[in-house]
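#onboarding

Welcome to the new folks! Below is a worked example of what a typical request in this channel looks like: someone posts a single protein sequence, and someone else replies with the predicted structure as tokens. Don't worry about understanding the tokens yet, we'll cover that in week two.

Example request:
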Amino acid sequence: MPQPARERKRRKAISDPIRSPTMAGGLFAISREYFEYLGSYDPGMDIWGGENLEMSFRIWMCGGTLEIIPCSHVGHIFRKRSPYKWLSGVNVVKKNSVRLAEVWMDDYKHYYYDRFNHDLGDYGDVSGRRELRKRLKCKSFDWYIKEIYPDLFIPGHALASGEVRNKAQRMCLDSSVDSGAMNKPVKMWQCHNQGGNQYWMLSKHGEIRRDEGCMDFTGQGTVQMFTCHGMKGNQLWKYTEENQLMHINSNKCMELSSDGQHILMKYCDSNNDRQVWYWKKKKQKPA
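Example response:
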């Protein structure tokens, strides 16, 4: 992700540290004394996942600074296989992430929980971590968003969110937004009402997105995932009064293929049920 303009302005030389909202958990340096003062790792987290975000939030919200040092060199050796014995039937990453959300994200946690229909599962006792936050006199997550990561897209600002279901068949827009999904077609899958890869947001800027991935149409071929660029163009959509997903540049609408497996881009026809899509949640227009 490129540096925000405010950070480029703050830095005077290319060797100056770059302030970062978050970090990778296995690649950081911190003094032992400060690490222990901040509460070290959450002992209720298991194995791997989420600890980097938990520590990132904690550092910033509790008075610290997280920086990337441009001239540093870090060696990182990956094992051929995991050395851990994973717990059967437990989604460890989800459990860890819910723990950090419960302690650090305040009311913003509900945006995360929307991704999996608020099915939190057993995340253990977080009272000790909440007491740590109170003892350290840490700031709110709202402060973190506004002061440390103001560029972050906030789901609460979305015009619509949740699954996007077709009227003609019980099929939903479905795609990952990780690096492996970029420049690949958005898929269709039977609606499962579990969020995940079927959770989408329609931003006030006309993007159909999740995290940093946006639906993109060049005018030819089909709809693909692409990194959100904020420049509208191929990523500008309109959810019409007829419940169609219209691509502004091409003036075409998303249409479910007859076999229900693919997205087609066709000229808009409000009488075609295969071009009618329903969002799970949609903001009401002011009267």
